[in-house]
Amino acid sequence: MTYLAKPKFHHPNLPKNALGYTHRDYEGTVSTLCAGCGHDSITAAIIQACFELSIEPHRVAKISGIGCSSKTPTYFLGNSHGFNSVHGRMPSVLTGANLANRDLIYLGVSGDGDSASIGLGQFAHCLRRGVNMVYIVENNGVYGLTKGQFSATADRGSKSKRGMMNTDNSIDLVAMALQLGASFVARSFSGDKQQLVPIIKAAIAHKGAAFIDVISPCVAFNNHAGSTKSFDFVREHNEAVNRLDFMASRMPIEVQYEPGSVEIVEQHDGSRLALRKLAADYELHDRGAALGFLQHHAAKGQIVTGLLYVEKDPEDLHAHLRTVDVPLNTLNAPELCPGQSALDRINASLR
Amino acid sequence: MPPANSSATPISRVNDFVVRFANVNGSGSASANEMFARAVMRMGVPVSPRNIFPSNIQGLPTWYEVRVSEAGYLGARGGTDLMVAMNPQTFDKDIAGIEPGGYLFYDSTKPYPASKFRDDITVIGMPLTAICNREYSDPRQRQLFKNIMYIGALTALIDMDVAVVEKLIGEQYKGKDKLIAPNIKALHIGRDYAILNLQCPIGLKLRQADKVGDRIFVDGNSASALGAVYGGASVCAWYPITPSSSLADAFTRHCARLRVDAETGKARYAIIQAEDELASIGMVIGAGWNGARSFTATSGPGISLMQEFIGLAYFAEIPAVLFDVQRAGPSTGMPTRTQQCDIISCAYASHGDTKHVLLFPEDPTECFEFGALAFDLADRLQTPIFVLLDLDIGMNTHLSRPFAWDDAKVYDRGKVMTAEELEAGRDFGRYLDVDGDGIPYRTYPGTHPTKGSYFTRGTSRDRYARYTEEGAPYVDNMQRLVRKFDTAKDLVPRPLIANADKPTKYGVIYYGSTAPAMDEAIGMIEAKGHALDRMRIRAFPFHSSVASFVADHDFVFVVEQNRDAQLRSLIVNECGIDPVRLVPVLHYDGTPITARFIAKAIGEHLDQLTVKPVKVTS
C-alpha cells in the first residue's frame, strides 16, 4: 500500500480558528518521508500558518515538481487541489493555473534539485514575471530520492555522506531571487518554526512573487559532519537578521515594542508585519543592500535568515497583463466569443 | 533585348497559369508580389500564392509563386509559365524552371549573353535598375519602387486591369496617404514602359471573371488564432518559432480587438511569451487544470521539447490545445519549408503508452473551425488536442470559404462536477468511469470546502486519485484511457469521401495541405482514363470508415508530405491493415506538393497495373 490515509478522529477540544476549523482540517495524508526529515517540519509550519490565517483550505492550490520536497503537498491541506507535476516545472504549471484563476492562493513547493538544477530557468522566469505565489524551496543540498547526489545548492567544499568533496560553486537561490525581482524574499530553517511560520503567513498575504528558501536538513543523506546543510551546521551558523510577528488585517497591534527596535511593514491586503531587528543596520527595502549583506555573510560561512526583502508596492502578473478582475476560468461564450457579427466584419476585411 | 526565339510555341492561356517571382530576401518584394496576387483575386479569378523563403532576414533567394486558375485549382501545380527573374543569384536555375513556350521577364540593365537564355521561351527584358536609378536618388526607394514597377509592367504584359492595382495601393497605404501617389507613379512608369517598348500582351492573359464568390483571402495561422478566440481560449503561452510565431501574434492582435472589456479596458485573456516550449506547455497545462481554455502554438522542435509534459497531460487527463505548424525536420531541418512530418511524434508523443487526438485542417477555414472545435474536444476528452497545420497552410494566403459561427452555440465544457452536485452527495472519483465512455468527472480547484478535491499527479493512482503502485489499478486506468480514445473516434471530424464517377478498385487517402493539389491531380489522373475513390482524413483517432475504405479497395495510395509515410504507418498500426495494401506517395523536398507530382506518381503506378498481361503460348 502506498497511500496512507490519516485517521479523522481528534481531540474534541482542539482549538478552532475564525472559520471553525481545527488544525487537523489543514492536514493531509501521513508523510512517507524519513523520520526526522526537515521537510516534515516545513509541512507542519505550512499547516500552522494556514490554520492561524483561517484560510479556507479549498482556496489554496498546492503545486510541486518532482523530488522529496515535491511529495510534501500530499501531507498538508488535504481539502486543497494539489498538482504534483514534472521535475523542475512547478513554476510554469503554477503560472498557468494562476492565470486561469487569480482568486486562489498558490503555494508552490519545490526542492533544490527541482529549482536550482533542472528547473533553474523556470524558477527565474516565474519570479521575474511577478506571479502571485508563495514559492517555497525545501533546500537540503542533496538528491534524496536517488540516494545522496549533490545538488546545485551544495556549498563548495562540503562533503557528501560517502566522503566526496563538492568542487562546484553553489547556487544561492535567495541571491538570485533578489536579483530577479521577487517582491518578497526570505530564508529560514526548518528547525526554527518560530521564525518560519510568520514568514509563511506574511508570504501568503503578500500580493506578488514571494520566495522562501528553507534550509531543511536531509537526515538520510546530508546530516553528517562536513555537510553545510546539517542541523548542527545550520544552527551554529544561522545569522538571523530579524524576527517577525504577522498581524492579519485590522488587528490592533497589541504587543508593546521598544521604540526603534521594530519596523512595521504594511502589506497590500492590510496585514502588517512587525519586524524585530536583530541586525541593526539591515534595510528591508533595498535589494542591493540585501544582496551585499547576504554575500558578505556567506563569505564568512554564515547563513543569513529572516525576511530579507519586501517591495513596498508590488504588482503581480495579472496587473502587468491588465486582465479582468474575475477569474478567466469563469468566463464563457458570452464573454469570450465575439459572434457572427464580428466575423462578418473580419470576412469583409479579407476580400 | 535578346531576340525571342520560338522553337516552342509560346504558351497562350487565359486565367490559367503560374507566375513565379524570384527575388532577394529583404528587398521588400513580398508586399508587391502579394499585391499582384490580391489583384488577381479582385478580378474574380481564383488565385493561390505561395511564398518560398529562406531562414534568414536579408540576402538569400526567395520565390513567390502565384497560381492563377479560373477552374479553381488552388494547390501548387508545378512548373512556371512566367518567370519574373529579379535575383541574379538564381537566374540560371530560374530560367531552367520555365515551361517550354513560357516567358522570362528580367532586369536587362546589365546585359546578359544570349547563351544565358533558352531558345524555347520568350525573353522579355526591361532595364528596371536603370529606370529606377534615373527616377530616384534614395537607394531604398530605388529598391522598393523597382518592385512596384515590375508589377506595373506585368499589368501591361498580361493585360490586367491596372485600376484594381491602383485601388489596392490606396488600401495598403491607407493612413500613410503620402505614400500612395509615389507608388501609383512607379506602377505607371513600369506599365508605360512596357506598353511603349515591349510586345503587350503576351500569350498569358488575365480576364475579369466571377469565380471567387464570397471567399476570403487569409493565412492559416491567423485563421487558427481566430478559431482560438471563438473557441473560448483565454490563456495562451508560447515561444517564438518559425513557422508558428505569426499564430500567437495573430491571437494577440485578435484579442486586442475582440476581447478587451469596453468599460474597464481590461483583458479577457492572458498571453505569455514563455522562456521556452517546456514552460509554454507547462502554463497551458496549469491553466487547463484550473478550468481555463488554453493553448500553445509551436512547430516540430517545440513538440520535441514538450514531450514530457504532453505525457503528463495525457496521463493526468488535463485539457490542452497545441497548434503545431509543421516545418521540414528532423532537427532544425529546413525551418522555412513545409512538411507533414510530425504526425507520428504528435500521435504518440511522450514516453510510455500514449495516444493523442490530432486534427488535420486542409485550409484556413478549417483551421478556424478545427481551431475552435479543439477546445471543446479538449474539455470533453480531458486530454491534449493537436491541430496539425503546416507552413504552407499556416503562412501562405489561401482563398477559403468565409468564416461562419453559430451564435446559438454553447461551449462543451465536458464533465465538470459542481459544488452543488458535490453538496448533494454525488460520488466523486477523479478517475472513475461513470458513463462507460472512459471519460471521468473532474472538479476545478477551489470548488467545495470539503468535497471534490483531489491530487493530480503523473504517477499511478486509483479511481479516486489515490497514489498507488499496484498493478491492477494501473491496468484498469490504462484500459480506461484506451476506452476514452475510442470515444474520441466519434467526436472528431469524420473523413470525407468522394467516389469516382465509375466503380474502381483503387483509392487514395490524403490530408491537410495536400488537399488542393489533390483536387487538381484527380482531374489529371482521370484524364488518363483512371478512376480513384478519395478519402480526406481529417482527424486521428481514425473513424471506422477509414478501415472500411481500405477494405473496399484492392489498394489505396496514401499521399503525404514526409519521407517515412507517417500517416500510412498510423493507419497500418491502428487499423491493423496489411501494409502492402497502402501504397505511399511521398513528397518531402520542403516545397508544397504539386498536382503534377501526385498525378505522375499515381498515374504511373496505375498505368503499370492496367497493362494487360500477355498470354504466352508455345
Predict the CATH topology of chain A.
Rossmann fold
Instruction: Please identify the oligomeric state.
Output: heterodimer
Strand order in space, largest sheet of chain A: 2-1-3-4-8-7-13-9
Determine the number of helices of chain A (DSSP H or I, runs of at least 4 residues): 12
Provide a compact summary of the structure.
The complex is a heterodimer of chains A (351) and B (618). Chain A is an alpha/beta fold and 351 residues long. Chain A has helices at residues 38-52, 68-71, 90-100, 112-117, 120-129, 173-180, 193-205, 231-237, 287-299, 317-321, 333-336, 339-349; strands at residues 60-64, 81-84, 105-111, 133-139, 142-143, 149-150, 184-189, 209-215, 238-240, 242-247, 262-266, 272-277, 303-310.
In words, what does this structure look like?
- The complex is a heterodimer of chains A (351) and B (618).
- The model of chain A has no long low-confidence stretch (mean pLDDT 92).
- Chain A has helices spanning 38-52, 68-71, 90-100, 112-117, 120-129, 173-180, 193-205, 231-237, 287-299, 317-321, 333-336, 339-349; strands spanning 60-64, 81-84, 105-111, 133-139, 142-143, 149-150, 184-189, 209-215, 238-240, 242-247, 262-266, 272-277, 303-310.
- Chain A is an alpha/beta fold and 351 residues long.
- In chain A, helix 1 (38-52) crosses helix 7 (193-205) and helix 3 (90-100) runs parallel beside helix 5 (120-129).
- Chain A has one domain (23-334): Thiamin diphosphate (ThDP)-binding fold, Pyr/PP domains (Rossmann fold).
- Chain B has 618 residues and is an alpha/beta fold.
- Chain B has four domains: 13-205, Pyruvate-ferredoxin oxidoreductase, PFOR, domain III (Pyruvate-ferredoxin Oxidoreductase, domain 3, 3-Layer(aba) Sandwich), CATH 3.40.920; 218-400, Rossmann fold (3-Layer(aba) Sandwich); 416-491, no CATH class; 496-610, Rossmann fold, CATH 3.40.50.
- Helices cover 37% and strands 19% of the residues of chain B.
- Chain B is globular.
- Chains A and B meet through strand 2, helix 3, helix 5, helix 11 and helix 12 of A and strand 9, helix 7, strand 11, helix 9 and helix 10 of B.
